[in-house]
Amino acid sequence: MSSRRVRVTGLGRPDAGVSRTKKQQQNQGLPRQHQQQQEAGGGGRAGREHAHHLFDELLRRDTTSIFDLNSALSAVASESPAVALSLFNRMPRADLCTYNIVIGCCSRAGHLDLAFAALGRVIRTGWTAQAITFSPLLKGLCHDKRTSDAMDIALRRMPALGCTPNAFSYNILLKGLCDENRSQQALHLLHTMMADDTRGGCPPDVVSYTTVINGLLREGQLDKAYCLFDEMLDQGMSPNCITVGKVDDAMSQFDRLISEGLTPDGVVFRTLIHGLCACDKWDKAEELAVEMIGRGICPDTIFFNTLLNHLCKAGMVTRAKTSLI
């Protein structure tokens, strides 16, 4: 299905280039001579000339499909959104995928007004917008500290248009809220995702949890950060390299509390030990467990079950038996 297209103009200088390896991946499916030209030409005037020359060749072919045009447009867009938009204005036809690329280009170039104009064309044409269609708009709004507007789009307007936000959509919102020091609202949104999951909605992933944990730590809400990390592990999610970094941050905050003469409670100890075990930091976890007991905080059955579970999963059965003695 084709449509009349919205013309996109008024963009400034193209962005800088991407890595050579990434270019080679993007150029798959393009004519061989133009693959070599793009890899050698890079950005600037030469790169723009090669991109226009490639499009000239594609447009002259009777067999060129919209898929071919979109592939070429996407390859150029990742390197230079402004050039991609100038090429888009020469395309004889477009589909939803084309407009997804255009919306992304406009958003990355800082022209949200043009991105919303392109989205309006998608809606008027009768296409059903996808979550990927809205993602660049959400990122652009959050980057401009307009996270509340982004939340209105994701939570109200997208469902009204028959488009369900996915985990990536929610993660954009969570990061936007935390970047604006609104981690408590991010925590509420995270729990909303969990509630929706019980009705077949969108469950949070490890990125969702890590984003909110980081926001809580930055705002000094240590207890909530510890509890959320514990909750993430209880959901059966394995920490990624970013989460491990947050465990280290949490330990730094913990050490600061101790140096200030404050005594963390059993929840804080249990969560930290849980996190250290999940990150394979067994010696530090054992050291913290000894300190917890030394402070008169008695470990309960849940604590021992959690510790033994981590040890057994790691194949440390002998150490697990020692922990029971």
From TrEMBL:
<dbReference type="Pfam" id="PF01535">
    <property type="entry name" value="PPR"/>
</dbReference>
<feature type="repeat" description="PPR">
    <location>
        <begin position="95"/>
        <end position="129"/>
    </location>
</feature>
<dbReference type="GO" id="GO:0003729">
    <property type="term" value="F:mRNA binding"/>
</dbReference>
<feature type="repeat" description="PPR">
    <location>
        <begin position="130"/>
        <end position="165"/>
    </location>
</feature>
<protein>
    <submittedName>
        <fullName>Uncharacterized protein</fullName>
    </submittedName>
</protein>
<feature type="repeat" description="PPR">
    <location>
        <begin position="265"/>
        <end position="299"/>
    </location>
</feature>
<dbReference type="InterPro" id="IPR051240">
    <property type="entry name" value="Mito_RNA-Proc/Resp"/>
</dbReference>
<keyword id="KW-0677">Repeat</keyword>
<feature type="region of interest" description="Disordered">
    <location>
        <begin position="1"/>
        <end position="48"/>
    </location>
</feature>
<dbReference type="InterPro" id="IPR002885">
    <property type="entry name" value="PPR_rpt"/>
</dbReference>
<dbReference type="Pfam" id="PF13041">
    <property type="entry name" value="PPR_2"/>
</dbReference>
<feature type="repeat" description="PPR">
    <location>
        <begin position="166"/>
        <end position="200"/>
    </location>
</feature>
<feature type="repeat" description="PPR">
    <location>
        <begin position="205"/>
        <end position="239"/>
    </location>
</feature>
<dbReference type="InterPro" id="IPR011990">
    <property type="entry name" value="TPR-like_helical_dom_sf"/>
</dbReference>
<keyword id="KW-0809">Transit peptide</keyword>
